[in-house]
Write a structure and sequence with these properties.
Length: about 450
């Protein structure tokens, strides 16, 4: 009996050690803490932007349009950006994208302070940030393995999500205080200068020359993009996974567009209530990220994929029926846990299997499905909320997600575990399909 406290202490210490094991890599530590500061600034900006648009227009559709403009460049440019990520040093790309994003936020703050801010200016700023993110997102995701290692990749991806969601927890709460005490413009300005932290971290990194990718040679951009698409399509498990990612992007992730309406109309609140919803959502997401980091490699990815999706749908349905602040906050925790569990599992499932030379392109396809299709979900969410109200919008989206999840589950359960699919077999399948394609081209003259 006297050994039990010691055993518990060892277990807790072991979990904490596993949870943060990627921080043993110097380059990843620099990235981790720089990103934490920068992402808090990002959530200050996100919260301020949504509330500013709602304050200027009181229109749910406009919220959807602004979100659309911020995401549509990812739809148009992400596949091309993946080939750039595989060709040029990823650190250099990230320094450029992070610097550009910081400058953009400072310019928006100046526009607000000088009284020149309009919905048109905010739309242009959203479009510019979306263009920057089209190159930043796949590069940043593919860069993780170079900062950490393949052995710690799953843990590093989960920790990336944890700092994103820690910022998601702290940022909106801080934004509510800053907006009330200072101004909305201050949120944008602080976001702009927060990028300095991650830029310094990137410049301080040291790499072995062997880790620097060789430039693509004798391959066109179009052929390089096709190669990444062929890789994903060749594995039925990946096809089903991307089907689910698309469903969650179109009918799941877009719930964030209507959170200002939930706070302002359903809960009859203001900026503090809106910040509370975002913070609760971030708390659930952070819990999901940290648990995934601590238990990386020990969870059944197939089960976690559908557990996350199911929890999200249950929480979204509950929010459509309850209009009490504390119950809505509780459901936002569940929603945050469910959606982040789903996307971490999807991300790490892909990253564990992708070959290094295709990493940027495969993650650009993931970014295309995850963030590139988000604008259509945003427009749909805004239109549904304007036409039918937010509660019915959440119910419709929940039904659509069930339409994606049930057939995908029935399909995937018949397939072997992805871990049992040898990488060599995947490569052979790719070669075989390429030979078939070339034979068809020859036969057609």
């Amino acid at each position: 009996m006297t050994l039990q406290p010691f055993a518990i202490k060892r277990t807790v210490f072991g979990l904490l050690s596993d949870m943060f094991r990627s921080l043993k890599h110097r380059n990843y530590r620099l990235f981790f803490f720089g990103q934490l500061i920068s992402l808090i600034g990002t959530w200050l900006q996100n919260t301020a932007l949504a509330w500013l648009v709602w304050s200027l227009t009181k229109d749910a559709m406009t919220l959807g349009v602004i979100s659309f403009l911020g995401s549509v460049p990812i739809l148009l440019l992400s596949l091309y950006a993946g080939t750039v990520s595989d060709e040029y040093p990823k650190r250099s790309i990230l320094v450029i994208t992070q610097s550009s994003a910081g400058l953009r936020s400072v310019l928006v703050a100046i526009a607000i302070w000088t009284g020149h801010v309009t919905i048109v200016i905010l739309g242009i700023a959203a479009l510019l940030l979306g263009t920057i993110n089209a190159f930043d997102m796949p590069t940043r995701q593919a860069f993780v393995v170079e900062m950490a290692s393949k052995e710690d990749l799953t843990n590093a991806v989960a920790l990336n999500s944890s700092i994103f969601n820690a910022a998601r927890l702290l940022g909106p709460a801080l934004a509510g205080i800053i907006i009330a005490v200072l101004s909305i413009a201050t949120c944008f300005f602080l976001d702009g200068i927060s990028y300095i932290a991650v830029i310094i971290g990137l410049l301080m990194m040291r790499f072995d020359h062997q880790l620097v990718r060789k430039r693509l040679q004798n391959v066109s951009r179009l052929s390089a993009m096709k190669e990444g698409i062929m890789y994903l399509y060749s594995v039925p498990q990946f096809r089903a996974l991307m089907f689910l990612v698309i469903g969650m992007t179109l009918f799941g992730w877009s719930y964030t567009v209507n959170l200002p309406v939930v706070a302002g109309s359903l809960l009859h609140g203001g900026a503090p209530e809106y910040s509370a919803l975002l913070s609760a959502n971030g708390a659930g997401a952070l819990l999901a990220a940290l648990s995934q980091a601590a238990l990386a490699g020990k969870l059944d990815s197939r089960k976690m994929l559908f557990f996350g999706m199911g929890a999200f749908v249950a929480g979204l349905l509950a929010v459509s029926y309850v209009h009490v602040l504390w119950l809505t906050v509780l459901m936002m925790v569940l929603i945050g846990w469910g959606i982040v569990t789903f996307f971490i599992t999807a991300n790490t499932t892909l990253q564990r299997r992708v070959p290094d030379e295709l990493r940027g392109r495969v993650m650009s396809i993931y970014s295309f499905s995850f963030a590139g299709l988000f604008p259509f979900g945003s427009l749909l969410a805004g239109w549904l909320a304007s036409s039918y109200g937010v509660p019915d919008t959440f119910r419709i989206n929940s039904a659509c997600l069930a339409g994606f999840g049930i057939p995908a589950f029935l399909f995937i359960r018949k397939l072997p575990r992805l871990t049992a699919t040898p990488f060599q077999a995947v490569q052979e399948l790719l070669v075989s399909e390429q030979e078939i394609f070339e034979a068809e081209q020859i036969s057609q003259g």
